[in-house]
Amino acid sequence: MSRETALAIAAAVNAGRSARVAVEAALAACEADQLNAVIRVHRTRALACADAVDAHIRSGARLPLAGVPIAVKDNMCIDGLPATCCSRMLEGYVAPYTATAVARLLEAGAIVVAQTNMDEFAFGSSNETSCYGPVKNPVDPSRIPGGSSGGSAAVVAAGYVPVSLGSDTGGSIRQPAGLCGCLGLKPTYGSVSRYGLIAFGSSLDQIGPFAANADDVAAVLAAMAGQDPLDATSAPRALSPATGEALRGARIGYVAAHAEGLQPAVRTALEATKARAQAAGATLVPVTLPHEKYAVATYYVIGTGEASSNLSRMDGIRFGHHAEAADLRQVYGKSRAEGFGAEAKRRIMLGTYVLSTGYYDAYYKKAQQVRRLICRDFEQAFASCDAILGPVSPTTAFKLGEKLSDPIQMYLSDIFTIATNLAGVPGLSFPTGRDDMGLPIGMQLQGPMFSDNKLLNMAKALG
Ligand code: GLN
Fold first, then answer.
1. pLDDT of residue 151
2. With 90 as the cut, is the pLDDT of residue 253 above it?
3. Which end of the chain is more exposed for a tag (fewer CB within 10 A), N or C?
4. Burial per residue of 368-392, b for 16 or more beta-carbon CB atoms within 10 angstroms, e otherwise
5. How confident is the model at residue 404 (pLDDT cuts 50, 70, 90)?
6. What percent of the chain has pLDDT over 70?
7. 40: which residues sit within 8 A by CB, 6+ positions away?
8. Residues labelled catalytic
9. Which of 85, 120, 148 to mutate to test the pocket of ligand 1 (most atoms within 8 A of CB)?
10. Which residue has the higher pLDDT, 191 or 410?
11. pLDDT tens digits along 116-150
12. How far does residue 125's CA lie from ligand 1's centre (Å)?
């Protein structure tokens, strides 16, 4: 992990240490990357930003993230930098504006040092669908780091940077955080602006931070959350502050069915974490999420439907890859056939099918009805508990290539993370232990809407 926390760096820079110190260290680590986690390093730009932060501090300003080096997933727009979603389809595309979440971190004094590898258009759980090739897990390079934000998890777990940004549509922050051994937060839907995040599933996507400790996650979240007039789905309500005791007197819910089918070490870690919660003064409360078993199926109807619609703008004319052909229709077809990878094509075909006339009611509308039931499950569960504790993934990191040819197996690795996005509630993945091969095990806390800071406080007391 990064030698210094984000908050320690900010304190030092606010006290007069040059922002170049931490930025140089992060740049050197990113340039020496052996994990294929980093796809672009921005040395000149980062050093210029460091000098600008130093000048700002000299003039008397104090910034919450002064001089904190960050890495950003390649699906967020940053003015003047490429944004490709690790797809050939967006080769050569340079963003003409900056995503609100990133812009707010820059205003708070953070400095973008690198952009990170990801599954193509965020479709995946292993970071193996990137056009730049797979990312390796920093703990064991023969294994996957998780996905789709695998690069962002790896750069934090490997200690290149104290903080990175990922996006989570069905688990893409929480699952790689768990498999690499750092924290990752999928914030409450609507709490962080999606403006400038290249959309996958607009009703599910959220940007969130990775870090090595809960205070850094909270600091980044505080800097980037809040309503944005540029995102109609951003919420007018602020995140609740974390007040009082994290666990003493808290009611921690658990779903008995979550303990089934887990790798034994993950199950042991789950039981140990529950025991720690109890020892810290929490009461364990059994809850049920009766419709959670339909979450993966529901997600692959809604998520692919939204993805096929969002990706229709990649037409070979306005952005990225363009193929020459005899007429307009053929330009569209050829550009998309050449530009998209196999998993992106699979999602587009599935999504187009479930949205098409005659199937819309049977699949898409039905999935929306099930989604409502899943939301209600969470509302009912949170009537009797303050948060739900459970596993992030059924297993620790699997081998590179192990599930690539079996999409169903790959889709099932998100079984515990997907309902969170369908319901919109926050989900936090935090490291709890290791299996007998030394591979990290993450646990998840899910809470009511806007309780993100409370979850972070609980994880601090549990970690
Ligand atoms: N693994 C899931 C998928 O492939 C989730 C991806 C994500 O959250 N972006 O759809």
1. 98
2. yes
3. C
4. eebbeebbebbeebbeebbbbbbbb
5. confident
6. 100
7. 74, 81, 82, 114, 115
8. 73, 148, 172
9. 148
10. 191
11. 999 999 999 999 999 999 999 999 999 999 999 99
12. 6
Tell the residue nearest (CA) to atom 4 of ligand 1.
Answer: 124
Upper half-sphere CA count for residue 200 (Cβ side, 13 Å): 29
Task: Write the CATH number for 342.
Answer: 3.90.1300.10
Asked if pLDDT for residue 1 goes beyond 80, the answer is no
In which domain, by residue range, is 11 found? 1-463
| Phi-psi group of 287: left, alpha or beta (phi > 0 → left; psi -120 to 50 → alpha; rest → beta) | beta
Structure tokens at 168: 């989570």
Give the angle 361-367-370 at the CA atoms, nearest 5°. Answer: 125
Q: Is the CB of 311 under 6 A from ligand 1?
A: no
Question: Does residue 463 surpass a pLDDT of 90?
Answer: no
342 CB neighbour count, 10 Å cutoff: 12
For a pocket test of ligand 1, which of 119, 144, 172 has the largest count of ligand atoms closer than 8 A to its C-beta?
172
193-202, 236-245, 375-384: least confidently modelled range:
236-245
HEC-encoded secondary structure of the chain:
CCCCCHHHHHHHHHCCCCCHHHHHHHHHHHHCCCCCCEEEECHHHHHHHHHHHHHHHHCCCCCCCCCCEEEEECCECCCCCECCCCCHHHCCCECCCCCHHHHHHHHCCCEEEEEECCCHHHCCCCCCCCCCCCCCCCCCCCECCCCCCHHHHHHHHCCCCCEEEEEECCCCCHHHHHHHCCEEEECCCCCECCCCECCCCCCCCEEEEEECCHHHHHHHHHHHECCCCCCCCCCCCCCCCCCCCCCCCCEEEEEHHHHCCCCHHHHHHHHHHHHHHHHCCCEEEEECCCCHHHHHHHHHHHHHHHHHHHHHHCCCCCCCCCCCCCCHHHHHHHHHHHHCCHHHHHHHHHHHHHHCCCCHHHHHHHHHHHHHHHHHHHHHHCCCCCEEEEECCCCCCCECCCCCCCHHHHHHCCCCCHHHHHHCCCEEEEEEEECCCCCEEEEEEECCCCCHHHHHHHHHHHC
Residue range 409-422: mean pLDDT, rounded = 92
- Beta strand pairing call for 111-116 and 69-73: parallel
pLDDT in tens, 331-342: 999 999 999 999
Q: Which atom of ligand 1 is nearest to the CA of 125?
A: 1
Q: What is the pLDDT of residue 2?
A: 57
> What's the structural domain count of the chain?
1
